[in-house]
Amino acid sequence: MSYGRKNDFGTIIQIGDILVSEEVVTEFFACDYPVCKGICCVIGDSGAPLEEEELDDLEREYPVYSPLMRPQGRSQVDKDGFFIIDRDGDIVTPVVDGTGECAFTTFGEDGSCFCSIEKCFFSGTCSFRKPRSCWLYPIRVEKLSNGGQALNLHRWNLCDDAFKKGKREGIRVYEFLRDPLISIYGKDFYEALEAAAKVING
After folding, report:
1. Which ranges in 47-92 belong to alpha helices (H)?
2. Alpha-carbon distance 24 to 27, whole Å?
3. How confident is the model at residue 109 (pLDDT cuts 50, 70, 90)?
4. CA 181/CA 136 separation, integer angstroms
5. Which of 131, 160, 182 is at the close of a domain?
6. Domain residues for 153?
């Protein structure tokens, strides 16, 4: 693990071939679902970013989670498949035509939004939890030309209440994302990040 200065971006934490923005360990964040009601699932310029290796999981588990999806979402999958390429050339989840609504979204009686895939995961019927980009939010992952990755904090006005709740409760971004970080990058990575956070935050 190493640290370095990079212009005005603050300290860059390097763990193996992964670069982590200082904000991941200094900023506070904790989803405030009762306030936002999962609105991030239905508003955006495009769908959620996907990794190529996730596409088979989406297709394999579709018979399990698709009954929870809205008819509009299933129709969109019938039309577009399990992913589309957005205007930036990235692989993303399909969205219902004319909206920012992810095709895989399901809704509660009060209008709250949920991921149909994750709902099945928690019920024990689906082995794929949800796209990594959703599980890791507010971290966004950038693939580097050398094969490494950069983990940066993404700020979205829809999540203002989550940043406030995190600060109120003293929960840093990396702490809120402990489970996905360990699941995706391993326990050693998380422990190294935790050690870096203690140094940076004093």
Report:
1. 55-60, 62-65, 71-80
2. 6
3. confident
4. 7
5. 131
6. 1-29+138-202
Whether residues 103 and 179 share a domain: the answer is no
142 and 116 in a common domain: no
pLDDT digits (tens, 9 = 90+) for 7-47: 455 789 999 999 999 999 999 999 998 888 888 888 877 89
Q: Tell me the pLDDT tens digit for each residue of 157-170.
A: 889 999 999 999 99
Tell me how far apart the alpha carbons of residues 122 and 201 are, in angstroms, rounded to a whole number.
34
| Number of domains the chain contains | 2
Please return the burial class of 130, using the count of CB atoms within 10 Å of its CB with bins 0-12, 13-18 and 19+: buried
Q: Let me know whether 106 and 146 are in one domain.
A: no
User: Rounded mean pLDDT of 83-100?
Assistant: 91
